[in-house]
Amino acid sequence: METRITRMLHIHYPILQGGLAYLALAELAAAVSNAGGLGQITATSLASVDDLRREITRARMLTDQPFGVNLAISQHHEVDSMVDVVVEEAVPVVTLTGGNPAKVLERLQSCNIKKLVMVSSAMQAKKAETLGADAVIAVGQEGGGHIGRDDTGTFVLIPSVVDAVKIPVVASGGIADGRGLAAALALGAEAIEMGTRFIVTKECTAHMAYKERLLQARAAETRVIKRSIGAPGRVMNGPWVEHVLQKEREAASEQELYALLQGKRNLRVIIDGDFDQGYGWAGQSVELIHAIMTVEDLIAEVIHDALSVQKRLQTVLAVKDK
Ligand SMILES: Cc1cc2nc3c(=O)[nH]c(=O)nc-3n(C[C@H](O)[C@H](O)[C@H](O)COP(=O)(O)O)c2cc1C
């Protein structure tokens, strides 16, 4: 499985772990990288620049393989300093989301760091390419966490982005198994990114109740919040989310909504497993998750199943003489 992405990122398998706020820590990142994919540390849910430096050091103690740092550009007042840390620590890959990436891309242009920008439309992908991104991660509306405003699903988004840019495309949103990997490659993507699937692994530090909820959930039990303020994001349904949605129906202001969705409310689910008092991001791929596995077993299974799809397609797509 060699693609421009595996070559560019020096990874064995075309599988990236998505930035996962508060969960993409050294343990998970290192486990994914050790298993042949690209793990990531999410910087902007960390409290400080020092915390980021500590996570990078911890990840380096757990793996000698490359890993990335995910930065949600407009989500942290210390983003510029975090970019400095990434440069100083010579982290090989950065993924950028949640804002205009122009400034950070320019800052990193002369560094030997691969820059991947998350997009949700062909137009955004073209812009990222023009600004100097090395690849784009196209996230369909099935995905967990923040999704684009256009409501475009992965199956349409990926070929549309592949047609629009010359740089390689990573497919994200709704992918949780080997069939998804094979389908993404068939659509022209050169790797996949999975977010929700990696929460339900042994190495992820999420509370067991969060993992169990994702394990049992159907796609229809996810909800999109913050649509009313133009920043849609997909979460697991629960009492707190229903409360938020009710407030949106009542036309709550951006300020009121953010008060209900502060990081500490996210941590109520991540640390305490309490859906009555908090929210947890999750994508429609919950419907495809059937076991809590080690990251190594998960990646091995995804690769094995993708190869089975390939074998099946060799028969299905074969042209037979009449
Ligand atoms: C719990 C959770 C937290 C997330 N936090 C971030 C984040 O901090 N930064 C980011 O770029 N994407 C974040 N995402 C989005 C993922 O990186 C990825 O794009 C998405 O999960 C892909 O869709 P999937 O969940 O269907 O795999 C998050 C997703 C989830 C499920």
Can you describe what's shown?
This protein has 322 residues and is an alpha/beta fold. The protein has 14 helices and eleven strands. The strands form two sheets. It has an eight-stranded parallel beta sheet with strand order 1-9-8-6-5-4-3-2. It has a three-stranded antiparallel beta sheet with strand order 7-11-10, with helices on one face. β2, α3 and β3 form a beta-alpha-beta unit. The protein binds flavin mononucleotide. Residues 18-21, 23, 42, 45, 70, 72, 97, 118, 139, 142-145, 172-175, 193-197, 199, 281-283, 285 line the site of flavin mononucleotide.
Secondary-structure map:
Elements: H1 4-9, E1 15-17, H2 26-34, E2 39-42, H3 49-62, E3 67-72, H4 79-88, E4 93-97, H5 102-108, E5 114-119, H6 122-131, E6 135-139, E7 145-146, H7 154-164, E8 169-172, H8 178-186, E9 191-194, H9 196-199, H10 208-216, E10 222-225, E11 233-236, H11 239-249, H12 254-260, H13 263-270, H14 295-316
Parallel strand pairs: 1-9, 2-3, 3-4, 4-5, 5-6, 6-8, 8-9
Antiparallel strand pairs: 7-11, 10-11
Helix pairs in contact: 2-3, 6-7, 8-14
The chain binds flavin mononucleotide.
Flavin mononucleotide (FMN) is lined by residues 18-21, 23, 42, 45, 70, 72, 97, 118, 139, 142-145, 172-175, 193-197, 199, 281-283, 285.
